[in-house]
Design brief:
The complex is a heterodimer. Helices cover 50% and strands 10% of the residues of chain A. Chain A has 22 helices and ten strands. The longest helix of chain A is centred in the first third of the chain and has 23 residues. The mean pLDDT of chain A is 93. In chain B, strands 1-12-7-4-2-3 form a six-stranded parallel β-sheet, sandwiched between helices. The model of chain B has no long low-confidence stretch (mean pLDDT 93).
């Protein structure tokens, strides 16, 4: 996904004006939210599971170097190859290199945020290698030449009519208008891609240090096909995806499925350990694990924001975020959106590239409440805001500083505070609308009223009303 | 090149974690004795587990055939062959399926047997037949472990997957399963190349959140529960 600079303010305004996107966002986030709530309430010790999941992630991240070496050893022991990539460019180079060495003509991919992060598709295309996304949503997005907007449901703003038109144009088929028919078309097309592909590229939800197992969770079966049918399997895995022990999976799979889609278990979970064994009848002959850093190791140095690396990419924070629910995924400017995008993009890409994102939150903490590994989003966001302000790029505006000084002076002097209160009631009158609220204030306050009304200052102050009540009550 | 990146990444991690890296705090567990305890608890309430498992399967769009005995299982399979007009099949060469001689039975019904060795051919088989290594009652999940007799494609490429489950395959929940798997991991160091959890037929909701079955994997999942 092309990344230059996040333009949250501009892009979110566009999103707010897009009526069909607004409708789709409400539908998808409400659906996932209620499913998650139901699924988590069914588990009596849900809160304990979250606490344990957090503890395991904390222990892993705080000993990451040790666990990475154990993982490397385990993968080698089972016949797989391990590659280390310090950035996006190196990861793409490694994977394209594996493809060239294996004389690969075409590649199938299952859904993976990490491959989006390194823009793997364009590297394959530059190398003259065909690459096909196989998750239905991702396939639609690839045909449309767009980027995913939700971790779990990438194509969600598109209606079936949009997809029908797209399929008809790109695949040269008649118009179908039922989701079942469109799905069937995709199945047939993609089935032949699977059978002809020389290489499958997947991500991983977890990588188990102890056994060298990578775990891929899905509902469609495209990840099973990607990791089973082609002769080479490459898994691109962020270094934070580690968990120490095989048995930790029971906990993490439980919280992941319930947090993401509200399922008790996702339809398919593949536990892949190395390539096919010599006696196995099917499965890939080569297994490559590419460990991706791309800025993650730097996040470790900050104690305040280190927990950003606990994330298991369930998407629950997106569905519960009042900001994401309005502005959608694309406003966040990069592959990760919602609260997790707001904390991870500035850290991975550099705070100067995305100074708006830590402010794209009301700090309501709904994300913290639903996070299966209890990432304290408000705490991390505040820390990042501090970093933005301290860096040159996001330095506070003169006007803002002046305003805050004035405010401080006013509240520190009782008599001035009282007078200001009274005066502001009269000052506001020219802007007061028929609904009793302020509808359009001059700059800089227009930045608020352009989007929504501002509550008007009441005629009586709270103190005055309080006195009256006390008086009446005798 | 790659060697340097490895060192560089590890170096940055170690520098970032200076003064943090705690000693491992995980407590030692004895999975052998935990597994024995789990097996005991499963045996004590097998009938309850069967009811739970069958109920959960139905929740995830799985067709359940409860068959009292091998003959009944085979009869229901014959019924399925007629109803779905099955012409060809792929099957695991696993121990139990061999014992009940299912392959011969299907051949006698004039179905063509297809080997999993050729991906293009098995993709054209009408049905794939497997047993399961474990079955998780709590979530209605089938657990299939690949090995030389149990190829992965049989439960993946044909449009219908039929799995034969026996009461002794049942565990209560995913926690039980990993305790048992871990106890075996200690005993034999070689872990198999692929284990798969299957909970219902392949599904998607990527188009307008409308649930559609059979997008990539089998569209229909049958479980023959051999009581």
């Amino acid at each position: 996904m092309g990344f230059e600079e996040v333009r949250f303010e501009q892009d979110s305004e566009k999103a707010l004006r897009n009526k069909s996107l607004q409708k789709a966002l409400v539908n998808v986030t409400n659906r996932f939210r209620s499913a998650r709530n139901k699924a988590s309430e069914e588990v009596p010790d849900w809160e304990d599971l979250r606490t344990s999941a957090r503890e395991i992630k904390k222990e892993t991240i705080e000993n990451l170097d040790k666990y990475l070496l154990i993982l490397e050893e385990s993968v080698k022991r089972t016949g797989g190859k391990v590659h280390w990539a310090k950035d996006a460019e190196e990861a793409s180079r490694i994977i394209v290199g594996i493809a060239r060495e294996g004389n690969v003509k075409s590649v199938v991919k299952s859904k993976s945020m990490a491959t989006e992060e390194i823009e793997l598709n364009s590297s394959f295309e530059d190398a003259g290698i065909k690459v096909v996304e196989t998750d239905l949503g991702e396939y639609i997005i690839q045909l449309a030449g767009e980027h995913p907007s939700h971790i779990i449901a990438p194509a969600i703003p598109k209606t079936k009519e949009d997809i029908s038109k797209l399929f008809s144009e790109k695949l040269g088929i008649p118009h179908y208008d039922k989701p079942e028919e469109l799905t069937k078309v995709a199945r047939e097309r993609l089935r032949s891609e699977f059978l002809n592909a020389d290489m499958g590229v997947s991500g991983a939800n977890f990588a188990v240090a102890e056994t060298g197992t990578i775990v891929v969770v899905e509902n469609e079966g495209n990840a099973r096909l990607t990791t089973t049918v082609p002769k080479i399997h490459v898994a691109l895995v962020g270094i934070e995806k580690l968990i120490p022990h095989y048995e930790d999976l029971s906990l993490f799979l439980t919280v992941l499925a319930r947090s993401a889609t509200g399922q008790k278990s996702s339809t398919y979970v593949s536990f892949i350990t190395g390539p096919k064994r010599s006696t196995d009848i099917d499965g890939p002959e080569e297994f490559h694990l590419v460990l991706l850093d791309n800025g993650r190791s730097k996040i470790l140095a900050s104690e305040e924001t280190r927990e950003s690396l606990y994330c298991i990419r369930c998407g629950a924070c997106l569905n519960n975020c009042p900001v994401y629910r309005k502005v959608g995924g694309h406003s966040y400017g990069w592959v990760y959106s919602g609260p997790i995008g707001a904390i991870i993009t500035p850290q991975l890409m550099g705070i100067d590239k995305a100074p708006e994102l830590p402010f794209a939150s009301s700090l309501c903490g709904a994300c913290h409440d639903v996070c299966p590994v209890k990432i304290d989003f408000p705490k991390v966001l505040l820390e990042l805001r501090k970093n933005v302000v301290e860096s040159k790029k996001g330095g506070t505006r003169v006007l803002e500083r002046l305003g805050i000084r004035l405010w401080r002076f006013t509240v520190e002097h009782e008599s001035i505070y009282k007078i200001t209160n009274k005066l502001s009631y009269y000052f506001q009158l020219p802007w007061k609308g028929s609904n009793g609220k302020l509808n359009s204030l001059p700059y800089p306050f227009s930045r608020w009223t352009d989007q929504r009304d501002f509550p008007a200052v009441a005629k009586k102050t709270f103190r005055e009303t309080w006195k009256e009540i006390k008086h009446e009550a005798g | 090149m790659s060697k340097n990146s490895r060192e560089e990444i590890l170096h940055t991690i170690r520098k970032g974690l200076e003064g943090v890296g705690s000693e491992e705090t995980f407590e030692e567990r004895n999975f052998q004795s935990e597994a024995q305890e789990v097996h005991k608890l499963i045996d004590e309430n097998q009938s309850g587990l069967i009811t739970k498992f069958v109920g959960e399967l139905k929740n995830v769009n799985t067709n359940v055939i409860e068959a009292g005995g091998e003959e009944k299982a085979k009869n229901s399979l014959q019924y399925l062959i007629k109803e779905k007009e099955l012409k060809s099949f792929a099957i695991w060469e696993s121990q139990f399926l061999k014992e009940i001689n299912l392959k011969q039975e299907l051949k006698d019904s004039r179905l063509k047997v297809i080997t999993a060795k050729n991906k293009n051919r098995i993709a054209k088989a009408d049905i794939g037949i497997t047993e399961v290594d474990y079955a998780i009652a709590d979530t209605g999940t089938l657990v299939l472990i690949a090995d030389k007799n149990q190829p992965r494609s049989v439960s993946l490429l044909p449009p219908i997957h039929l799995a034969i489950v026996r009461p002794e395959n049942l565990v209560r929940n995913i926690n039980d399963l990993f305790i048992i798997l871990k106890s075996k991991l200690g005993a034999s160091e070689d872990i198999t190349s692929c284990m798969t959890f299957i909970t219902g037929p392949s599904r998607t909701a990527d188009i307008e959140l409308s649930l559609t079955l059979g997008v990539h994997g089998p569209k229909e999942l049958y479980v023959v529960f051999l009581l």
